[in-house]
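We now fix the convention by which a protein and its fold are recorded. The integers have meaning only within a learned vocabulary of local backbone shapes. The record below shows the convention in full.
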Amino acid sequence: MTQAAAVLDRPPAPSRWLIGRPELALIGVTMLWGGTFLIVHGAMTQSGPLYFVGLRFGTAALLTLPLAIPVLRGLTWREAWAGLVIGLGIFVGYTLQTWGLQTISSSASAFITAAYVPLVPVLQWIILRRRPRLASWIGVALAFIGLLLVAAPEGGMALGRGEILTLISTVAIALEIIFISLWAGSVNVLRVTVVQLAVTSLLAFACMVPAGEAIPPFSWAVVIAACGLGAMTAIIQLVMNWAQRTVSPTRATLIYAGEPVWAGIIGRIAGDRLPPMALLGGVLIVAAVIVSELRFGKQVDGPIPS
């Protein structure tokens, strides 16, 4: 799920609740996101997380570069810094998420990762002093209960390494969203997107040596999975940049809330069976995502910070 540059443009959006091409495009993006968890889960049987993340985002950067070349000459220090900081957030979030997928199911990873949405308002309160709304606190409460059920469906707090790593990754992803909000509207989307994707890839490859991760034996399955996800990342980014120019926050949130649902459906088709309590936890997390972004009263339209 790479949503890093989608909020960098903020033109006004219509408030009509009709399903048009932008909404259909975002539904397609969400389905692709849901499928990425199973692909990464399978690739982790043959590759280390850092190598895979480096290859994945390196591919995305190379595919996005031709579109950005005409405007790269205008790269400013502000945009370079924004790309560096956002890329750092992506690197930490996706590396920990990928690492966690070595030991937990794709469905569980998707549901836990979705908790970053209600977490954003809390971190904004701590860092930017923006007090969360009541809906945000309700979303946090639902997400916390859901996380307990997904991560430890049999009861208790005995979380495994995979669950813990994925939980930490949600903090990094939420911080990434906050970093984006600091530069929203004042940078060029294409330039920052290329920088953040390249930074993510370079950090992943650079950390392989200190982390003791060796380059895995050549595998077409790993190469196809990583490069395929890199291409999907580039396509998803471009589609979001286009679609979210006319899709309101609430509408986009409702669509994005389907990501772990699609991941669960795809995982189940592939043989992944979550316990009933874990499924209930997943439902609560999806509800938390929706509730935390609802605006009661007058709605202000604009792109969702995702």
About this structure: Confidence is low (pLDDT under 50) at residues 2-17, 298-306.
